[in-house]
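FIELD: query
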Amino acid sequence: MKNLVVKKTSAVKATLSATLYAALLSATSMVCFAADYPENKDYGNKGDFVAKRGSEYGRTTNLMTIGPILINQPEAPGSNSVGLPDGVTYKAEETAWDLSDLTNPTLIRSLTCDTCGLGQPIAAHATVVRFHKEKGPLLYARGPGELSYNPLADTSNDQLEVDTSWPFASEPLGYSNLTSPYFVRPYWEYGFDPSGQMAIRDLANRPETATGTGYSLVGTKWDGILNENALVTWLGTPLTHWNHLPLTGVTGFSSWFGNLLVVASDQRSTGIAI
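FIELD: result
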């Protein structure tokens, strides 16, 4: 009988353990944890693949962190389903990932609505972080808005906050804004438009009537000087202008080095103008 009792007790314990484990697993699967900074250690050897995620989200051109959260911003039109594994469907979405465990990044949520498409800040190849005196760093994601990390929130989803208090136009932040608060137009884009003069524009000096859908300079003194897009899209108050392209013939993007404005050519190989 003793052996029978022992066997019976073991079976009961096993049943209770399995039941308890299932209950705990069910409960913990519904818990969302807050993101935290990953452990500072070596993750494998140089060249090792630590983790691969998000292949269905297109050709990534911007990978930016805001706290321990990674923002993946693919570009268009280069992103598509070509080359994806069988059964994987391309999704034109910006996404946020929890980096608490660098060997297992987990998807927090998509940042792209069903109809708005990719945000693609700064011609899909760069973005900026500006600092708010109360909210701290704000990561520009264009479509969703500006993103910030709140370490006090309970879950990673709640920690990733969206700020839309400063409405952006289609491209208020260009490459020139990576080195300066002033906007200067690029002379490179799909459907290149050489018309209009180059102007230095102050984004900080923003009229009350400026909104994310544009601020029209049509009918002002700038009509006939700036190109059409620069007239109808809010890109900052014009401070000065000059006829750059006929003077230099240099296409490309602008960068600031102190008080020097450098225009460096793109693949057209048209030179450098300072």
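FIELD: remark
Residues 2-28 form the longest helix (27 residues).
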